[in-house]
Specification:
homodimer; Rossmann fold; two-component regulatory system (chains A, B); five-stranded parallel beta sheet; 233 residues; DNA-binding; transcription cis-regulatory region binding (chains A, B); alpha/beta; DNA-binding (chains A, B)
Chain lengths: 233, 233
DNA sequence: AAGCCCTTTTAACCTTACATTAACAAAAAT
DNA sequence: ATTTTTGTTAATGTAAGGTTAAAAGGGCTT
């Protein structure tokens, strides 16, 4: 069994601090890629798979939140930790809204950071036992590739899916023939559960149904008040 | 619609602060049980299932860490958040070691706490893909799936059941051939026992009888003044 | 900055699903 | 006999979901 080092994307514009942090993490057995601003961070993120992203909030060109949002569009699961300059409540709240897993106030203690990282990785480890490579699905005569965000019918031309369409169909596929609770999709994809996000989700269900009706054996059923069910007859 | 509130165990020895925090959380739609020390906290924990534990670190009799360890022995999954008096690095590290999900330094901002709770619950949401076997019943020639809320006759087309129909039939099935007391259904399903809910229940019994008459071996009998009995001959 | 494309949200309107209540009939208990 | 409980059907009001279209937002190009 080959032990794979965990890969961390560190986006931090202060060069001194960035290097120090990077070295410290590498000394502790992480594989660290350091980007010096939001732009570069996103480029690097697209090129590889990371187990964790550590983002500075204050950065030129593209701040940490904007970057986080972009990262979230491509990947709803990767843990994100923010580094905020001080205890700025605004920042913290904003961070959680874009789906942060945690945040740290600068200056912070490096051991604390390490523990946080460990805790987060551990959390992921328990979750990610089964769904590690769950990006490709066969749904009746369709093939869904949720990494590349397309849907093919009978091996024909792929139709591109928007991020939300993709995530929603992926969640449904993960629960094929079973209940996919409304609340699950709303918390996982929309990160909020209110009247409007709920209506938004219904709109997406309608869109997916449109795509899926090419195969009349495939349908999305509603379970009133509970959620939806993707069935393949 | 019947909404299931998330249940929080709050263990905090400062009575004023505890009450205030409890009220604040309840205002935000959580179901909160407040324990005043570690001992009491553990007692309450054993008696019920919680979605989250919020533990003060400094407490008489039994501190938060000891309590957390005990809780972890019984339940490896429930998220734990610590409240630490100040930025005590020792505490934070120790907290993560016993498997905390997060910590908050007192005094903390209540909105921040709320966001943390939300984030933690979101994380949990994915894991909770519960197993189905306890939701399936065989009733004569019928199959009841009370998770997906349908009833099949001889493996034919499933008939959809409404939430109340479903819950009622499930309760009857749990007591198959035995008395299912009126009061039980009223308190469990209707959460209230009065003339009108009682009449409402009778209406649902009539609906269920209609579904079930496809199999003349299955019937719902009334036990006057007591309740109903689902019998399979 | 203006315009365009893509995605997402919001709004509107309509349909379906559900639970409750009323009304009256039938059984059972007193 | 009459009061209470149960059986059943139908009517009503409300909430949830289906669908389409318009508005809003963001990035990118010119």
């Amino acid at each position: 069994m080959e032990e794979q080092k965990k890969k961390i994307l560190l986006v931090e514009d202060d060069p001194n601090f960035g290097i120090i942090l990077k070295d410290y993490l590498m000394m502790n057995d992480y594989d660290v890629v350091h980007a010096k601003n939001g732009m570069e961070g996103f480029e690097k993120f697209k090129k590889d798979d990371y187990d964790l992203c550590i983002l500075d909030v204050m950065m030129p060109y593209k701040d940490g939140f904007t970057l986080a949002k972009e990262i979230r569009e491509k990947n709803t699961d990767v843990p994100i930790v923010f580094l905020t300059a001080k205890t700025m409540k605004e920042d913290v709240l904003k961070g959680y809204k874009v789906g942060a897993d945690d945040y740290l106030n600068k200056p912070f203690d490096s051991e604390v950071l390490l523990m946080k990282i460990k805790a987060i990785m551990q959390r992921k480890a328990t979750e990610t036992i089964s769904d590690s490579k769950q990006f490709e699905f066969k749904i009746g005569r369709f093939d869904l590739n949720s990494k590349l965000r397309f849907l093919k019918f009978d091996g024909g031309d792929p139709v591109k899916l928007s991020p939300k369409e993709n995530e929603l169909l992926r969640l449904l596929a993960l629960h094929e023939n079973d209940l996919m609770p409304r609340e699950l999709a709303l918390t996982k994809i929309w990160r909020d559960d209110n009247y409007f996000t709920s209506r938004s989700m219904d709109v997406y269900i309608a869109k997916l149904r449109k795509y899926l009706k090419l195969d009349e054996k495939v349908e999305i059923l509603n379970i009133h008040g509970e959620g939806f069910r993707l069935v393949v007859n």
